[in-house]
Task: inverse folding
């Protein structure tokens, strides 16, 4: 490919001839990615494509602002709690995350103003029991947690209890 274009030959025919000769010699055989679709084909152009590709190759992620990182961590803790071995472990994971969320209420975090609500431990425990029915069986000597403890509950058992509402509802989610 170091040879110069001869005079009187158009660039197009000269390049076409070089490609044809290289193909005949087999120089385009066994190229990496042969037979695979072109990555990113059909997607809109992104100026930062090479940075994203490098970060994917090195298994890195963009640093999130504090409030969004806390929200992502809360989602991961919820998933981890649902996959825990025991209900006690699931409750411990959720309580640790709730402690981090409470700390975020006391100290301002960087990023957009997002209020992360506390994770309901009892709700996660109920979901965990639903996902792990064999582990949720209790001996007959233990008390049923759904049995009413308050005399008011005995009077009207059909009326569902209202969930506790947080003071954060005044701030509203946006």
Result:
């Amino acid at each position: 490919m170091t040879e110069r274009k001869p005079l009187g030959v158009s660039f197009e025919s000269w390049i076409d001839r070089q490609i044809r000769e290289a193909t005949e010699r087999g120089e385009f055989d066994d190229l990496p990615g042969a037979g695979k679709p072109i990555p990113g084909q059909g997607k809109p152009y992104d100026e930062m494509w090479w940075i994203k590709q490098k970060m994917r190759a090195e298994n890195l992620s963009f640093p999130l602002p504090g409030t969004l990182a806390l929200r992502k961590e809360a989602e991961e803790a919820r998933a981890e709690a649902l996959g825990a071995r025991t209900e006690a472990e699931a409750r411990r994971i959720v309580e640790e995350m709730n402690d981090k969320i409470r700390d975020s209420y006391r100290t301002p975090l960087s990023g957009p103003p997002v209020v992360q609500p506390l994770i309901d431990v009892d709700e996660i425990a109920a979901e965990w029991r639903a996902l792990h029915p064999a582990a949720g069986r209790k001996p007959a000597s233990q008390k049923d947690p759904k049995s009413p403890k308050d005399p008011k509950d005995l009077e009207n058992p059909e009326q569902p209890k209202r969930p506790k509402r947080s003071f954060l509802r005044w701030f509203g989610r946006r």
Remarks:
- The first helix runs from residue 11 to 25.
- The mean pLDDT is 79.
- The CA atoms of residues 10 and 16 lie 10 Å apart.
